[in-house]
Amino acid sequence: MRVIFAGTPEFAAVALKALHAAGFEIPLVLTQPDRPAGRGMQMHASAVKQFALEQNIPVAQPISLRLDGKYPEIAQEAHALLKATPHDVMVVAAYGLILPLSALEIPRLGCINIHGSLLPRWRGAAPIHRAIESGDSETGITIMQMELGLDTGPMLAIENIAIADDDSTGSLHDKLAALGGSMIVKALRQLEQGTLPATVQPELGVTYAAKISKEEAALDFSLSALALDRKIRAFNPFPGAHAVLDGTIVKIWRAEQVTGVVDQSSTAVSGQVLAANAQDGVLLACDSGASVLRLLELQKPGGKRLPAAEFLKGFAITPGQIFSH
Predict the structure, then answer these.
(1) Which of 232, 236, 249, 285 could form a disulfide with 168 if both were Cys (CB 3.0 to 4.6 A apart)?
(2) Looking at its record, which EC class is this enzyme (predicted)?
(3) Residue 266 among known ligand-binding residues
């Protein structure tokens, strides 16, 4: 089976590697244009492009596939390339560009998407982040047939995994990427044999995973410690949860809800430091003192991510100070 692959970040690259290792013919890869990244803002190729070039797979990087969009000539060129490239199916994973109906209809067997949630829960751009932020106990991968709606197509395969209490978006991403890679290989083999069933998504239980904004990562300590722990894990590694202490933005990478110090926090205001030492770490009152959050890993501007005990050696925090957003 000949597979055109469309994807951009590491999540997609894992699936591309799995398809390549399984022996599928990949005549073309689509990925987003190179972007500036890093402190020097040098142009960087996507993870998908890097692997494709290593394997001598042709790569195209159109900025749009919409014939009625801002770049109709570029879109027309991309359509012509797809039509001129012999293939049976297109596999899409975190591509980042809208595929219009005109593109979806080109492959003989249509376009199949690898989506990082248990559809219909968390359709949209940030399903991994939102699952953790919302306290879901499980998530998974859905292989689906693409149509015009946002992640609304028939489900071809679905598998779930548990979300651990200490999972961050980074750790859960890696688990789901590996699962997606194995599932798409199995699904395409079933598709070759004509044994891949399709199930219409249920109408109940639909939720939307809105794109993550940097503004969301500013922690509001009027929330409960449990809600804050989820947000910190959801925004790790991007965009990185943070709070302000005496005018300095401090990134918070890991934390945990703690019990047994409610009496101490009952008169504290939200975000107030209850303790800051090597033994306790940094304890903060949350939700007007109704719960307590222990900060486990922090980072000051220009510094490294450090365990709380190490962080406190170079950044003084004293009881009574108040973290704000």
Answers:
(1) 236
(2) transferase
(3) no
